[in-house]
């Protein structure tokens, strides 16, 4: 630990618990966020607190009010000796203490005046959060930000009631860090490299030690072949069949000279993995929906990189991928000798790289078709071993193994006219207001959500 | 410092001095409610971590002034991304002390009393004094112990619960983008029922070892983070989820203390991994839940089983998960210690019993075993059901 540079390590330590949720790439996205808070109300400072702690890039508080006695009563980031001073300034000072990596600024000015005088002020941020703002002002503000395509989050609290609205045209996420995903093993449709590797191993002729250290993935492959031969080429599907398949695997455990089965941990693992590993490989429905999105089908010179990527993926699945997404390329840990584990890992990784290069080919062709310069072409060529998708978008390739992590999109909502719906987005930087006068407000710098109230009080 | 400046309680007064359509049916608005919060109500917060920091802030702003906080931990760098009462200069200090000092300085009139200790360090005379206990714990064992303690404080008269002996517990928990909050009335509603992987040197050693192996075999992508995550089950944690759950817990505490609104009934689940999802349901009390009742549990063994098998059962049974159970019984009117790990001299004297069968120990079918463990403040009674070898065959 001591050998590493202090600064980087410090951040790694400080942010450790959240990096486990959104990774280094999510963190760097968060660190580029420039957030504007309108009104340093109790709700407002709570939201900022929860954004400053995980480390947004910067914040600016816009508030033309002076601190009053009642503000100090419910706002943790105002003090009694600040009564009469600028609320924006006092809150900025106390919030800035929370994280030295975040730079804070304030502007003591009336929102309506500023909207008249200098609307460009608002479009210099990546996100604007408005609390306790009257509707008239909101409509003007909403128009400015909608045109500039900058997310606006609107929150208001009253007693035990509160709401949050999200005004945003489209928000796309690459690397959505799914909570629980299946390993991408392709046992049902083994690719050539996997077939070749598994076929090169012969369980019957192995030494005892090699037998008990053959990776369970190979065991599953082998016993699936036997099963499929007996069942017209079909995988075990229901519970009963899976139980029978497990018995088939168990029957392969070596026996000693007294006919007693040896302890072979890899066979135990193979049996345990049957349920989780034999799911059918396919394209998830949410990604299929993206493939049919007009933004994907009708690319033009203005299309976002995201949609170019989606289209490239779609074309991959229709051609090289034979109906599947690119291989993820990672395998789980398992009992095995290091040599064969590495070999197996390499088999998967090499296929993933092939797939990535194919996707990159589609990306290049698409970019060419819509008349865009392929600036990343040379990079793809010089780093052929890294997942192409990641390179195209400038991500950390380790964090975006192939392209399957991609992709979600919210419904486009018109400014301030539609009630907020639950967005189908997951993102990393959610913050929450919590204190007296607000019960549940959930916000993120780029996307936000609304919660339901348990009980209301008027 | 001025503690009651003009306007300070304006918002709270609107809640407790006015009625309304959503108020609790029995709610009677009164200025005395605020006085009760400020002058009488005594709250215990357990844990000064992610939830604890938020809870202290919320409760202090809601008018509570006599707050105690217990935490046995010191501040680590990895706490700073959410435990907002701590700064880099506080690393290594006791969480309870730093948190209490911060709140006391920021919220005039609020007096938070810190206890840098374990909950097991205090007895019933300490816990009896509180009106409400709020838990922000990341340990199931501690949570269960606390619940057990509050149940043990209940007194009954002619079979009727003495309401004044009941101390409500509001409990919160978070992991990543998920969390829950619940209101537990000990003995009435359902109860809520590790490896040292935190030592950086230890983790670093494992990291170095795995890197050696990785280099040897060309494995990529091994990091400190990954190593640590594998060695101990580290919970991902963010400020926002803690804030949501703590806000909910503080609101429930306020509602119980003031009766202004009906409390949560009784378990709220929160998940904003994908959109925002909350769901509230009434968790029912389990018959035979160890934490909820003092009824003797039954254990089934055969007479050839060894005492060690009982100890293993106590440690591995999913609903028990004891750490170092001590087992005593009563034989011929005398108490007999069968095995006790926690006291060295007794451990030495009773160690040989582990290898003896239940028959050899003279234990009979129906015999009661009394089990003490750090996971529960009370001694649990088990009734031993012993199958003879014949029954077994």
UniProtKB/TrEMBL annotation, chain A:
GO biological processes: protein neddylation
TM segment ranges: 428-448
The entry's keywords: Membrane, Transmembrane, Transmembrane helix
A Pfam cross-reference name: ThiF
Ranges of residues in domain THIF-type NAD/FAD binding fold: 15-172
Single annotated GO MF: NEDD8 activating enzyme activity
Domain of life: Eukaryota
Gene Ontology annotations for the cellular component aspect, listed alphabetically: cytoplasm
InterPro entries: ThiF/MoeB/HesA, ThiF_NAD_FAD-bd, Ubiquitin-activating_enz
Protein name: NEDD8-activating enzyme E1 regulatory subunit
Species this protein is from: Elysia marginata
Phylogenetic lineage: Eukaryota, Metazoa, Spiralia, Lophotrochozoa, Mollusca
From TrEMBL, chain B:
Protein family: Belongs to the ubiquitin-activating E1 family. UBA3 subfamily.
Annotated function: Catalytic subunit of the dimeric E1 enzyme, which activates NEDD8.
InterPro entries: E2-binding, ThiF/MoeB/HesA, ThiF_NAD_FAD-bd, Ubiquitin-activating_enz
Molecular function terms, GO-annotated: ATP binding; NEDD8 activating enzyme activity
Pfam families, per the entry: E2_bind, ThiF
Matches recorded under PANTHER family: NEDD8-ACTIVATING ENZYME E1 CATALYTIC SUBUNIT, UBIQUITIN-ACTIVATING ENZYME E1
Residue ranges of every copy of the E2 binding domain listed in the record: 299-387
The keyword Oxidoreductase is annotated on this UniProt entry: no
A Gene Ontology cellular-component term: nucleus
Gene Ontology biological process: protein neddylation
Keyword ATP-binding on entry: yes
EC numbers on record: 6.2.1.64
Catalytic activity: ATP + [NEDD8 protein] + [E1 NEDD8-activating enzyme]-L-cysteine = AMP + diphosphate + [E1 NEDD8-activating enzyme]-S-[NEDD8 protein]-yl-L-cysteine
Organism taxonomic ancestry: Eukaryota, Metazoa, Spiralia, Lophotrochozoa, Mollusca
Keywords from the named record: ATP-binding, Ligase, Nucleotide-binding, Ubl conjugation pathway
Pathway assigned in UniProt: Protein modification; protein neddylation
Name the UniProt record assigns to this protein: NEDD8-activating enzyme E1 catalytic subunit
């Amino acid at each position: 630990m001591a050998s590493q540079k202090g600064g980087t390590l410090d951040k790694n330590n400080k942010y450790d618990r959240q990096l486990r949720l959104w990774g280094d790439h999510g963190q760097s996205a968060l660190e580029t966020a420039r957030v504007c808070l309108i009104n340093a109300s109790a709700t407002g400072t709570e939201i900022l607190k929860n954004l400053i702690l995980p480390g947004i890039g910067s914040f600016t508080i816009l508030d033309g009010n002076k601190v009053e006695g009642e503000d100090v009563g419910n706002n943790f980031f105002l003090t009694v000796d600040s009564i009469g001073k600028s609320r924006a300034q006092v809150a900025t000072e106390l919030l800035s203490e929370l994280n030295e990596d975040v730079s804070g600024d304030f502007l003591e000015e009336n929102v309506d005046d500023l909207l008249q005088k200098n609307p460009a002020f608002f479009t210099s941020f990546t996100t604007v959060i408005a609390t306790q703002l009257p509707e008239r002002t909101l409509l003007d503000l909403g128009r400015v930000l909608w045109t500039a395509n900058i997310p606006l989050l609107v929150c208001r609290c009253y007693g035990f009631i509160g709401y949050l609205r999200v005004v945003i045209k489209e928000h796309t996420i690459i690397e959505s860090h799914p909570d629980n995903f299946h390993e991408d093993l392709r046992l049902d449709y083994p690719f050539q490299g996997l077939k070749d590797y598994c076929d090169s191993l012969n369980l019957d002729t192995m030494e005892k030690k090699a037998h008990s250290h053959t990776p369970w993935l190979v065991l599953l492959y082998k016993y699936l072949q036997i099963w499929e031969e007996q069942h017209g080429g079909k995988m075990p599907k229901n519970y009963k069949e899976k139980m029978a398949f497990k018995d088939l695997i168990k029957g392969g455990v070596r026996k000693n000279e007294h006919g007693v089965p040896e302890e072979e941990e890899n066979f135990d693992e193979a049996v345990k993995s049957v349920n989780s590993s034999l799911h059918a490989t396919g394209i998830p429905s949410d990604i299929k929906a993206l493939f049919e999105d007009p933004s994907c089908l009708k690319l033009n010179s203005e299309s976002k990189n995201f949609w170019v990527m989606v289209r490239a993926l779609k074309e991959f699945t229709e051609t090289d991928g034979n109906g599947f997404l690119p291989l993820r390329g990672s395998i789980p840990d398992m009992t095995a000798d290091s040599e064969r584990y590495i070999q197996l890992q390499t088999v998967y990784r090499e296929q993933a790289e092939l797939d990535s290069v194919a996707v990159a080919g589609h990306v290049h062709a698409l970019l060419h078709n819509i008349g865009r310069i392929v600036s990343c072409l040379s990079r793809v060529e010089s780093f052929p071993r890294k997942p192409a998708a990641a390179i195209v978008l400038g991500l950390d390739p380790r964090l975006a193994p192939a392209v399957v992590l991609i992709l979600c999109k919210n419904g486009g909502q018109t400014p301030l006219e539609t009630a907020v719906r639950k967005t189908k987005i997951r993102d990393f930087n959610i913050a929450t207001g919590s204190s007296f006068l607000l019960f549940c407000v959930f916000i993120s710098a780029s996307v936000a959500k609304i919660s339901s109230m348990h009980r209301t009080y008027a | 410092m001025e503690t009651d400046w003009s306007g300070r309680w304006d918002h709270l007064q609107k809640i407790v001095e006015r009625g309304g359509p959503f108020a609790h049916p029995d709610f009677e608005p009164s200025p005395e409610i605020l006085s009760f919060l400020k002058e009488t109500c005594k709250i215990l917060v357990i844990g000064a971590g992610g939830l604890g920091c938020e809870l202290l802030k919320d409760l202090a702003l809601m008018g509570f002034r006599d707050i105690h906080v217990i935490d046995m931990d010191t501040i680590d760098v990895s706490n700073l991304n959410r435990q907002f009462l701590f700064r880099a200069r506080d690393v290594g200090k006791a969480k309870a002390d730093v948190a209490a000092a911060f709140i006391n300085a920021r919220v005039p009139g609020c007096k938070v009393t810190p206890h840098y200790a374990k909950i097991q360090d205090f007895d019933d005379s300490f816990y009896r004094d509180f009106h409400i206990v709020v838990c922000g714990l990341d340990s199931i064992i501690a949570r269960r112990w606390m619940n057990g303690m509050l149940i043990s404080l209940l007194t009954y008269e002619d079979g009727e619960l003495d309401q004044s002996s009941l101390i409500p517990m509001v409990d919160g928990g978070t992991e990543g983008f998920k969390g829950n909050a619940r209101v537990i009335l000990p003995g009435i509603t359902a109860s809520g029922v590790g490896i040292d992987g935190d030592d950086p040197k230890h983790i670093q050693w494992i990291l170095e070892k795995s890197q050696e192996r990785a280099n040897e075999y060309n494995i990529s992508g091994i990091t400190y983070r990954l190593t640590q995550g594998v060695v101990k089950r580290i919970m991902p944690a963010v400020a926002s989820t803690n804030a949501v759950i703590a806000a909910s817990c503080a609101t429930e505490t306020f509602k119980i203390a003031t009766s202004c609104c009906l409390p949560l009934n009784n378990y709220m689940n929160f998940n904003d991994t994908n959109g925002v999802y909350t769901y509230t349901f009434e968790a029912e009390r389990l018959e035979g839940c160890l934490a909820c009742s003092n009824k003797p549990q039954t254990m089934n063994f055969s007479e050839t089983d060894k005492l060690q098998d009982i100890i293993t059962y106590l440690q591995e049974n999913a609903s028990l998960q004891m750490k170092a159970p001590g087992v005593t019984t009563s034989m011929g009117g005398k108490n007999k210690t069968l095995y006790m790990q926690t006291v060295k001299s007794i451990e030495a004297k009773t160690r040989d019993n582990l290898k003896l069968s239940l028959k050899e120990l003279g234990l009979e079918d129906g015999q009661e075993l009394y089990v003490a463990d750090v996971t529960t403040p009370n001694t649990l009674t088990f009734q031993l059901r012993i199958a003879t070898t014949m029954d077994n065959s």
